[in-house]
From TrEMBL:
GO terms for cellular component: cytoplasmic side of plasma membrane; cytosol. ATP binds at residues 13-20. Residues 267-278 have a biased composition (Acidic residues). It comes from Natronobacterium haloterrestre. One of its GO terms (biological process) is negative regulation of cell division. PANTHER family: ATPASE INVOLVED IN CHROMOSOME PARTITIONING, PARA_MIND FAMILY (PTHR43384:SF10), SEPTUM SITE-DETERMINING PROTEIN MIND HOMOLOG, CHLOROPLASTIC-RELATED (PTHR43384). This is Septum site-determining protein MinD. The keyword Nucleotide-binding applies. It comes from the Archaea.
């Protein structure tokens, strides 16, 4: 699988594990030494902060989009190699924020981090469609349920209209004894199957604990699946990376320093393959995409 820099994690339906996928893919890569930023671009219904026990101060992505704060002010260190940019939860902040500013946010992050994961809101609106065109690749998350799969089809169509590219499908809450073929679901949607994540009670427990699953229950079936997907996305051997890093003192949980904004200097990131050209297409076509999608539904 070709390596990209910026991934949008999207779904047409809420509650399918989109934010869980965002957090765990990012954490798995950070544990391997990659520099990662996770961004809550769900401007209306933000929830990423709760998944990683992050209690940000007044500065969030909303403040960046209203030009009341810098991106650095809204960036919080979660653990070694990983930071988060949370969105605000206030309706007044949401009303003032302009999604168009996401283009500059993504451009700045891709220059600093090896991987950027955009946690995209569900549904059809300007702020949910725009990131689909800004990312280098879109990962569509769905459960095997027919309604979720049907909504995934809409997300794929919107991505195409926004000028983005779907990297593939991640199916969550799978069961080994199911007669459902996850490869067939992906084939019906016309996209590759990136991976299947088994249903795992520890996933829900990790959310309540505010700790990424790959930290909370690292040897569990779902955590193992997320690490495999992360390794495929990055084209690296995560186990080998872990062996090389063994012996270092690291804090891979999302606790401790979570509330501290990132203000320390960072090394320049490696040159990436992505140039963000999809954002221009999103700017030109996103409005018509939303109109057409709403008329089709």
């Amino acid at each position: 699988m070709s390596q990209e820099t910026v991934y949008a994690i999207a779904s047409g339906k809420g509650g399918v594990g989109k934010t869980t996928t965002t957090v765990n893919l990012g954490t798995a890569l950070a544990q391997a030494g990659e520099r990662v930023a996770v961004v809550d671009v769900d401007l209306g219904m933000a929830n990423l902060a709760g998944f990683v026990s992050l209690s940000p101060d007044a500065t969030t992505l909303h403040d960046v989009l209203t030009e009341d704060a810098s991106l650095e002010d809204a960036t919080y260190r979660l653990a070694d190699n990983i930071v988060a940019v949370p969105s605000g939860t206030g309706l007044d902040d949401y009303a003032k924020a302009s999604p168009e500013g996401l283009r500059d946010v993504v451009a700045e992050l891709r220059e600093t981090y090896d991987f950027v994961f955009l946690d995209v809101g569900a549904g059809i609106s300007h702020e949910t469609v725009l990131p689909l065109g800004l990312a280098d690749g879109v990962l569509v998350v769905s459960t095997p349920e027919p309604a979720a799969v049907q909504d995934s089809r809409k997300t794929i169509e919107l991505t195409d209209r926004a000028g983005g590219e779907v990297e593939g499908l991640i199916v969550t809450r799978t069961h080994a004894d199911s007669d459902v073929s996850y490869e067939e679901i992906a084939a019906q949607l016309g996209v590759p199957l990136i991976g299947a994540v088994p249903d795992d009670p520890a996933a829900r427990e990790s959310v309540y604990a505010g700790t990424p699953l790959v930290v909370y229950e690292p040897d569990g079936p779902a955590a193992s699946a997320y690490r495999r997907i992360a390794a495929d996305l990055a084209g690296i051997d995560l186990e080998e990376r872990a062996k090389r890093r063994r012996g270092e003192t690291t804090d891979t949980s999302a606790g401790g320093d979570a509330d501290a904004p990132v203000s320390d200097s960072r090394d320049e990131a490696d040159d990436s393959d992505g140039d963000g050209d999809g954002g221009e297409a999103a700017h030109d076509e996103v409005s018509s995409a939303i109109t057409e999608a709403e008329s089709d539904s």
